[in-house]
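FIELD: query
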Amino acid sequence: ASEADQDALFLASACRDKTIKFWHVPTSTCLFTLTGHDNWVRGLAFHFSGKYLLSVADDRSMRIWDLENKRCQKTLHDAHSHFVTCIAVNSRFSTAATGSVDLSVKLWECV
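FIELD: result
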């Protein structure tokens, strides 16, 4: 891989300690930590623009993180009535889907 390719390898990890860690894979370095959830972070998905990270957690919320500014851009409190356990983003239809222990799946419009 070229040097430019290696510089573009990033990973986000959802943590039981209520945080999200953003890693530079080639150097195994944690670049920054995002805080804001009130319970275990269960799922992450990168927005198709690459500018945002979406997260869901046991606090029943979905959060949209601005990666450039390293802060929460928007919080959808009570996105579900129970733990939110997974999230996926579909760039073709500009939507995100979340799943919950409450046995529901919800679709959200991404702009």
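FIELD: remark
The longest strand covers residues 29-35.
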